[in-house]
Amino acid sequence: MGATAGGIDCDVHPAVPGMAALLPYFDPYWREQVTVRGIDGMDLASFPPNVPAHGRADWRPAPGPATGTKPGGAKPGSSLEMLRAQALDGFGSRLAICNPLYGTQAVYNDHFAAAMARAMNDWLAAEWLDREPRLRASMTVAVQNAELAVEEIERLAGDRRFVQVLFLAMGDAPMGRRQFWPIYAAAERHGLAIGVHAGSAARHATSSNGWPSYHIEDYVLNAQGFQSQILNLIHEGVFTKFPKLKVVGIETGFTWLPNFMWRANKTWRGVRAEVPWVDRPPAEIMRAHIRFTLQPSDAPPDPADMAVVLEQIGCDDMLLFSTDYPHAQFDGDAAFPEGFPVALRPRVLVDNPLDTYPRLQEAMT
Amino acid sequence: MARHVVATAGEIPPGGRKIVTVRGREIGIFNHGGEYFALLNRCPHQGGELCRGTLVGLVTSREPGRFDYSRPGEMLKCPWHGWEYDIRTGQSWCDPNDTRVKAYEVTVEPGETLARGPFVAETFAVSVEQDYIVVEV
């Protein structure tokens, strides 16, 4: 804990136990619909709770009785007491940002997605944020429909504990497209970052070559999903239009950045006339606007290479401390991978999160 | 530095170019609407024959989707990787501080003046009746 004390954990996962937990937060129409239609089990297919990585062994609730086809035990991340003891106290974090994932971004019906978003946000505020003052949150919105997403942002904007708007790495369309711009305008207006969490709405294959067969492929391909979002956001001109916007890659890894930056810069030099609003090398725009949570770090096998990769990334502002609690990314309290420069850690723990999430600064005074 | 006569004025029409060799260097001479510019025919990026590239306009943008097009024919795109150079200065668009191609002074001078020297005209018999393109190398 000593290594991370006082830090701001930018990715923890309170789990929605199931639709029963959200029912009180739906309006009567949707409560009836959810009940009558038997809607449940909205966990994303790309990262189901029983995947080993979904819960570190020592962070999983004790096994309870199995029900039907489900193994026993509550979902990892479903207990506030455990999150408080293991994530907040365990790492000495002064704040932690909750990123709940429960299918909303993948629902086909825009109106149901918006109802899910409202229910999830109100559930999170009442059951987590109200009970633990160190918690902050990403708001869930219906990214499928910008008008409905903006309505939800406006509804919640006054609650300063919400610091970010949450997307999945792979959705309906590339995030730079203008259909999404009203969401970015609202986020910039209210000082909210845009979070892009690993995961797919499964509208398109998770690989650009078509559907892969296995979980390992889906999981590793999230880095590519996020890379395509970065390229599209920059070259459609989102950061030209919204110069204060920050986009955070959550659980996408970051050690792939050097090659990605070099390739983008090199290509831009020859074809930049197609995108004249990109008036700087793309890597410069990444360094100014794109941020990454620390875990998973996908660290090089030789710890000495970690500093080399960071040197190649060429910017100390981009990484945000995260435990990814309760997901299994590292053992013990080694949230910083071996070889991570000690001098850089204070920035990653505190300064970079505060710069990325301006609303967090209010908690520091 | 010496002044070299490299072409007759009528030899390069507006929009045209001529690649000449002066003191062992290949240099592209461009006629842009009656103004002449000269650049080393070697892209500082990877050594491509820059002066054989396409002349295009300058495009900038104030906001996404807006194309502010100006200075048609004043940007030279390297045929190898498409890097753009300003024919007036040799400055690259993508890396203006660190990447530029050598630009040379070009003038058009009447044969009468040149006949008095000093100049170098290895391949030209200068006559007093014509104008000549002179590059300083």
Structure description:
- The complex is a heterodimer of chains A (365) and B (137).
- Chain A has helices spanning 19-22, 28-37, 80-91, 110-129, 146-156, 181-189, 215-235, 238-241, 257-271, 282-289, 304-313, 345-356; strands at residues 8-12, 95-98, 135-140, 162-170, 193-200, 247-250, 290-293, 319-320.
- In chain A, helix 4 packs parallel to helix 5.
- An eight-stranded parallel beta sheet of chain A has the order 1-2-3-4-5-6-7-8.
- Chain A is 37% helix and 12% strand.
- Chain B is mainly β and 137 residues long.
- Chain B has one domain: Rieske [2Fe-2S] iron-sulphur domain (Rieske Iron-sulfur Protein, 3-layer Sandwich).
- Chain B is built from one helix and nine strands, in the order ββββββββαβ.
- Chain B has one helix at 111-114, and strands spanning 3-8, 17-22, 25-32, 35-40, 54-60, 68-77, 84-86, 103-110, 131-136.
- In chain B, strands 1-9-8-4-3-2 form a six-stranded antiparallel beta sheet. Chain B has a three-stranded antiparallel beta sheet with strand order 5-6-7, with no helix packed on it.
- The termini of chain B are close together.
- In chain B, 30% of the residues are buried.
- The mean pLDDT of chain B is 93.
- The chains are: A alpha/beta (365), B mainly beta (137).
- The interface between A and B is medium-sized, with 15 and 18 residues.
| Derived structural class of chain B | mainly beta
Oligomeric state of the chains present here: heterodimer
Largest interface: A-B, 15 and 18 residues
Topology pattern of chain A, helix = H, strand = E: EHHHEHEHEHEHHEHHEHEH
The largest sheet of chain B has its strands arranged as 1-9-8-4-3-2
Shape of chain B: elongated
The fraction of residues in strands of chain A falls at 5-15%
- Principal-axis shape of chain A: globular
The percentage helix of chain B is: under 10%
How many strands in all of chain B?
9
Low-confidence stretches of chain A: none
